[in-house]
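Reviewer 2 asked us to include a model.

Predict the structure of this chain.
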Amino acid sequence: MAGEPQPDCLFCKIIAGEVPATIVRESETTVAFRDINPQAPTHVLVIPRAHHRDAAALAEAEPQVVADILREAAAVAADEKIDATGYRVVFNTGPGAGQTVFHTHAHVLGGRGFEWPPG
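Predicted model (structure tokens):
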């Protein structure tokens, strides 16, 4: 069920403390931790504590938590000192877009230049 922890979800296990992660920030509704396969000098994931399959499902069920994720992404950027130089926030939605863990997550990327279009 949406919102409930899923026993086979890697990110639910990180939230529960069953899988180790380098946590950099926590709030009432979110957890932020370093990506284990970083694509930039700063690569942090910000996830909701509640399980939702993707950003669209989260926006439908709990739009305030989407705002919480974006607020925490900005805080991560400030903590990592990339807010002044710029950073990217990415939600991959679905396997065709590169989503591999089906628990909503935002990638906060910075510390290097990025091309446009991405991909």
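Strands lie at 23-26, 30-34, 42-48, 87-90, 106-110. DSSP finds three helices and five strands in the chain. We have added this to the supplementary material.
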